[in-house]
Amino acid sequence: NCALYSLNEYKPPISRAKMNQVTKAAIKAIKFYKHVVQSVEKFVQKCKPEYKVPGLYVIDSIVRQSRHQFGPEKDVFAPRFCKNINSTFQNLYKCPADDKSKVVRVLNLWQKNSVFKSEVIQPLLDMAAGIPPPSVTPAIASTAATVSSNTPGNGLIITGKYKAMLVYLAIKILLQCYM
């Protein structure tokens, strides 16, 4: 986290040494890969527009290093980054207009090197071109907790904003334990 947010102390472009430092810290913390990914996603979400592309380069560097070191089959970072990739790229596209070509270049490299499947990358390329994603209507649009007799445990299914809030609180508590 400290290595990642120290990127804000430098003016873009970020040096290779700094990028390596962030990548090494991420790989070293592989047991906490979910927290690493969340930290990078949060950085991309909250950083100034000129730091969006360096944030993408951090994602790229971590994923490439993980695939190189552990192999594509055992890489935990790419699948985890893939979970929120659409919202991450929505934040990335808030970069300066002249940086969008750099984002597309990384996507093309990912496609060429099969880092992510085409069905993951194509909507991100469409997003860059301004093509809206196909609309999906959720089957259940509930934000309240619902009870089901088929659910193991206490029978409570937490959905919507309550689930997101509980997950967020759990992650916050875990991060405080390891800082």
TrEMBL record:
Keywords (A to Z) from UniProt? RNA-binding
Say yes or no: keyword Disulfide bond present.
Answer: no
- What GO cellular component is one of the record's annotations? nucleus
Question: RNA-binding as a keyword?
Answer: yes
Q: Which organism is it from?
A: Callorhinchus milii
Please name the gene that encodes this protein.
scaf8
* Protein name in UniProt: SR-related CTD associated factor 8
Q: Name one GO molecular function term.
A: RNA binding
Q: What domain of life is recorded for the organism? A: Eukaryota
Q: What residues does the CID domain cover? A: 1-132
